[in-house]
Amino acid sequence: MDPVANPYRPGAGRRPPILAGREPLLAGFEVVQRRAEERGEGERGWVLNGLRGVGKTVLLTEMLDRASRAGWIAAKAEAGTEPLPLTLSRSLVRAMRTATGRHPERRLKRLLGVFKAFSLKVEPSGAVSLGVDVDPIAGIADTGRFADDLASLFEVLGETARALGTGVLVLVDELQEAAASELAAINVAVHNLGQADPPLPLAFVGAGLPSLPAQLAEATSYAERLYDYRPVGLLDEAASRDALVLPSRQLDVDWDDEALSLALETARGYPYFLQAVGKHVWDNARRSPIDPDDVRLGLIEAQREVDDGLYRSRWERATPAQRDLMRALADLAGDTTASISEIAAALGKTKTSHISVARNELIKKGLVYAPDRGLLAFTVPGMHDFIARQP
Q1: Which tens digits make up the pLDDT trace of 199-233?
Q2: From start to end of the chain, where are the E strands?
Q3: Model's pTM, two decimal places?
Q4: Which CATH number is 235-314 given?
Q5: Which class does domain 23-231 fall in?
Q6: What tens digit of pLDDT does each residue of 134-176 get?
Q7: CATH fold of the domain at 318-388
């Protein structure tokens, strides 16, 4: 099969040709958009939570594209690389500059002045450039306290959007990497938005690992009721089938039933692996329909890509003690959870505190997470299979 025409796209954050199985979530986002545009009202903030490689970043990017095409003030940031106020400010700069090209400057003047004041507190050097000459407005979003300033900025953003007949979308990826104080600030800002009557048309969507809801609730207790939590999981069989079949069918290439079953059985609904399988099977296929031999050859290379690009780097970042803990977790839990006490016992430790250092470091490295108190699980589906294959 022609590799140039290959429709599959494995890789971090790369949009697959078909967003199979995510239709309900995107339909829900369409409702958020319509309420903002037709009624000038906002909905609760969303939190997407799921394991690595299930497509959270792809969904955020899809929402960003849809909102941008509709003329919204839309920004996407990623937590963890720098302090969140700075990261968020820089992403909003791009949104502001786009807005000045779409709307008369006089209708944005207050927002731009407030944002200039906010950004100067975050980046006092004044490196932020909005593309227009605007003076900061004193007294709003300029206290230097992130929680208060973000709440004020969100309010002005929402008011401006309502006056323009549009909406605002603020997306933050890898939100579990934010500091507890930063999570608390976001909670406060989103909470204040919802108290307006009617709620302002600013949509906040955060994405992170399955531990994110608990982290938000620890930051402020009312976060349990504040957000619309949307778990993003593995794909069911029908969606997995669509992810493999529909892209090739658009190019007049079919899958033999046995070949498709073999591919689905191996990928087990993991979106990243499905794209890797599709790519390598396509490159090894000789003709349509794709047959079981094509799949067997492709699976060898797909497994190698996933091992080298996803699992191996995580394994090699772990110390010997951390690898011992991961082996015990893999043996006990597979793709589910194991208790800390079970893991300690499997390692021959008499107290759970004896493995607390290794546990905490693995969580910091993003290799495991605590889905509940006293439990542990891998952040990446299939990690236990990779560990079982390591000498």
Answers
A1: 999 999 999 999 899 999 999 989 988 999 999 99
A2: 46-49, 73-78, 168-173, 202-208, 228-231, 338-339, 368-369, 375-378
A3: 0.91
A4: 1.10.8
A5: alpha beta
A6: 788 888 998 989 999 999 999 999 999 999 999 999 999 999 9
A7: Arc Repressor Mutant, subunit A (1.10.10)
